[in-house]
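User: quick one, sequence for these tokens?
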């Protein structure tokens, strides 16, 4: 199992080095329970699991997908949308802008941006990406 601090630390370092995700706080407990469940499913020990995530890209992708938060909803972080509407977009009416939502999960934020651009009369190329392949 994953009872040792060093094993968890090594797994978290692997996650961070491949995704940039820093697992901490309450999310660490969630990740530990996923790892324990996955180790039981595979009927292997923690050392073998670490070996797999280091050498099997599918297993690593599965772990990274479990490491993401995936919180998304329309017009999330309302203050940011109001700032765009009131201060940024009025300056952008005469040109096409590019907006990238880098961690958009299933896309509600980027769709919110599209609606806001339409409402404000702003032409934009919108891109939404996420590291979680299940979310995409």
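Assistant:
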């Amino acid at each position: 199992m994953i009872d040792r601090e060093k094993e968890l630390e090594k797994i978290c370092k692997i996650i961070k080095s491949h995704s940039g995700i820093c697992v901490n706080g309450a999310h660490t407990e969630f990740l530990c329970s996923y790892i324990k469940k996955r180790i039981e499913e595979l009927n292997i020990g923690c050392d073998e699991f670490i070996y797999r995530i280091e050498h099997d890209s599918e297993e690593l992708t599965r772990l990274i997908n479990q490491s993401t938060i995936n919180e998304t909803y329309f017009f999330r972080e309302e203050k940011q949308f109001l700032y765009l509407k009131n201060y940024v977009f009025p300056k952008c009416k005469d040109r096409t802008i590019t907006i990238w939502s880098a961690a958009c999960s299933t896309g509600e934020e980027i769709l919110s941006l599209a609606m806001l651009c339409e409402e404000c009369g702003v032409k934009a190329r919108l891109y939404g990406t996420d590291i979680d392949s299940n979310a995409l």
